[in-house]
Amino acid sequence: MPPSCCGYLSQYTHHHLVAFLLTFFSYVLLHASRKTFSNVKVSITAQWTPSLQNGTAPSYSPGETWEDNRLFADENQATLFLGALDSIFLFSYAVGLYLSGVIGDRVNLRYVLCVGLCGSAAVEFVFGTLTEWLKIYNVYLYCGLWVLNGLLQSAVWPCVVAVMGNWFGKTGRGFVFGLWSACASVGNILGAFLASSVLKYGYEYAFLVTSVVQFAGGVVVFFGLLTSPKEVGLSMESETGLRPVETDTDSHRPLMSDEEEDEVEVEVYGRRFNSVTHPDEPLDEPPQAIGFFQAFCLPGVLPYSLAYACLKLVNYSFFFWLPFYLSNNYHWKEAEADRLSVWYDVGGIIGGTVQGLISDFMGKRAPVLVVSLLLAMGALVGYSRSPNDQAINAVLLATTGFFIGGPSNMISSAISADLGRQEALRGSQEALATVTGIVDGTGSIGAAGGQYLVSLLESKLGWMCVFYFFVVMTGGSVMFISPLLFKELRAMWRDRHNLRREL
After folding, report:
1. Residue 272, pLDDT score
2. Where are the alpha helices (DSSP H) in 385-431?
3. Coil, helix or strand for 236?
4. Sign of CA dihedral 111, 117, 120, 121
5. How far apart are the first and last CA of the chain?
6. Which residues of 4-40 are buried (b: 16+ CB within 10 A; e: fewer)?
7. Burial per residue of 164-198, b for 16 or more beta-carbon CB atoms within 10 angstroms, e otherwise
8. What is the DSSP letter of 230?
9. With 0-12 CB in 10 A as exposed, 13-18 as middle and 19+ as buried, what is 463?
10. Please, are residues 46 and 69 in contact by the beta-carbon 8 Å criterion?
C-alpha cells in the first residue's frame, strides 16, 4: 500500500506549491472564459434573431436594431449554429492538441502556455466584445475566430499536465492530480458567476471580464512559472510502470551533494539512474522526445483515448448546454440557470479527488473508473426525470457530476501522466505532453462530433432523447476501459496469490 498522502505531501517544497497553484489557476482562467460562451447562449440567441419573434430580445439589446444584426430567422436556426460553433471549436481544439503536445515536449513549456493563454484571451475579446461594440455580425467571422480560439486553447492543457508531471511523482498522484484536476470545474464555477454578475449589462461584458482576467493570468505565468525541478536545482526521479512506487523519499535531493550514496547512482540532466533500474540506458545524452506515432502505440494510450472520447462528449455536453437546457426546459431565468449549473462542477471536483484517492490506495485506476461510470448511467437517467424544483435538481446534478466528472478528471490528468511515464518509454521521459495531447485530443474529437448531435437531437426529438444518447456514450466508455480492467484485476489476483504462497 502506498504511503499516506499526508506523509507524501510533507516532502514537497514551496516550489511544488507554486507550480501547483500557477498551473491550477492557468486552467481555471481558461475554463472560466470558455464557460462564458455556454452561459450567454440565450442572450446571443436573442441578439441574433428578430425581436418580434423572440420576446426576450429587448432585455438584452435595443429593439430598434434587430434588423441590422439579425443573423437567423428564428431561435432554432440560431441554436443549431451555436451547436455548430461548439463542434468547430472542439474539432480545432482536438487538432491543436495533437500538435501542441508534440511542441510542448520540444519547446519551453512556459512559452507555449503563455501564448495559449494570452492569444486565446485576445480572440475571445474580439469574438464576444469587439464585434458587439462595432456591430459586426458575420457567420464566417465567428467561425474563423472560433477555429483560432480552439487552436490557441489547445496549447494549455498538455503543458500544465506536463509541468505537473515534472514536479509531482507517481506516489499519491491519483490524489494530487485528482485535487488539481478540479481546475476545470473551478473555472466553470468562476466563469458562471462572472458571467451572471455582468450579464444584465450585455453578454459582451461577460466576454470582456473573463478575457482580461485570462490575459493577466498569462502574463503572471510567463514571469512566475518554473516548468521543472531542474530549474531550481532539484532532481527528478526516474519513474516507470503504472503502479504506485513504494517509496519516493529521494526524489527531491539536490543535484550536487557531499553525502555518500549507498548505491552507485549517476544523474544526467536532473534525472537519476542506476545499474539496477536502467542498465542499458546511455548516460551521456539528454532524454529525447518520443515521436507522435510511438506515443500513440504505447500500452493503454489507445483504449483510454477512445474511452475519453465517449466520456468527454457527455461531460462537455453538460458544459456547453446545461445553462441553456435549464433555461429552456424549466423556464428559469438565465442568471439562475447559470448559478445552478455550478453544482455539476461541484460534484466533479469531489468525484475527481475522492476517486483519485481511492485509486491510490488500490494501486489501480480502471476498477474505480468502471464502477463510477456504471453508476453514472443510472445518475443520468435519474437526472433526466428531475422535477421542476431547483433544490432537487441541484442534488441530482451534483450526483451526476460526481460520477461523470470524476472519471473525466482522472483520465485527462492522473492517467495521462501515468501513461506518459510508463515502463515502455525506457530512456525517453519527454513524452508526457505528447501523450496528454493524444488522450485529450481524441476526447475532443468525440466531444466535437457530439455537440452538433446534441443540438440536432434536441431540436428533432427533445431533451429526453439527448439523455439516452448520453447513457449510450457512457456505456461506450465502460466498453473501452473493460480490457484494461480485466488486465488489472488479473494482476491483483496474481499478486495476492504470490503473496499467499510466500506466507
Report:
1. 46
2. 390-410, 416-419
3. strand
4. negative
5. 17
6. ebeebeebbeebbeebbebbbbbbbbbbbbbbbbbbb
7. bbbbbbbbbbbbbbbbbbbbbbbbbbbbbbbbbeb
8. G
9. middle
10. no
Over residues 415-459, the pLDDT tens digits come to: 887 787 666 555 455 567 778 888 888 888 888 777 778 878 887
The one-letter amino acid code at 501 reads R
Integer CA distances (angstroms), 383 to 312, 409, 470, in order: 18, 21, 12
What does the radius of gyration of the chain's CA atoms come to, in whole angstroms?
23
332: its cell numbers: 428559469
pTM of the entire predicted model:
0.68
- Distance from C-alpha of 36 to C-alpha of 26, rounded to nearest angstrom: 16
- Contact 486/370 with Cβ under 8 angstroms? no
Asked if pLDDT for residue 499 goes beyond 60, the answer is yes
pLDDT tens readout for residues 271-313 = 443 434 444 444 444 555 666 677 777 778 888 989 998 998 9
* Mean pLDDT, rounded, of the chain: 77
Tell me how many degrees the CA angle 342-347-350 measures, rounded to the nearest 5.
Answer: 125
Spatial separation of the C-alpha atoms in residues 457 and 453, rounded to whole Å: 6
What are the C-alpha distances in Å from 282 to residues 116, 286, 287, 294, 420?
35, 9, 9, 20, 20
From residue 471, give the alpha-carbon distance in Å to each of 84, 305, 311, 448.
Answer: 22, 19, 10, 17
Q: Which three cell numbers stand for residue 235?
A: 532532481
Provide the 8-state DSSP code for 271. Answer: E
Q: Residue 448 is placed in which grid cell?
A: 466535437
Tell me: the pLDDT tens digits for 344-369? 888 888 888 888 888 888 778 888 88
